[in-house]
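[Q] Does anyone have a clean structure-token version of this?
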Amino acid sequence: MDKIESMAGEILKTVCESDEILKNPDMDLFETNYLDSFAILDIVVEIEERLNIKVKANSINKSKVRTVNEFTKFLRENI
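[A] Here you go.
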């Protein structure tokens, strides 16, 4: 596991308040009710605080955080 993958997992684990999400990085976090649309704001705050960067509101959406793997891909492409 590299640094970005680890960071993605930690951010989602914090927002989802569960480490169960790390057992299956392709689990749909919306279908399993770990995330809802309001959680995207929490994810943005976590990214900004942990990485000390600003996230454009239109750069992140449900499809980018649906799974741990999708979120990891988003971070790789945007940080």
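[Q] Thanks! Anything notable?
[A] The chain has a mean pLDDT of 95.
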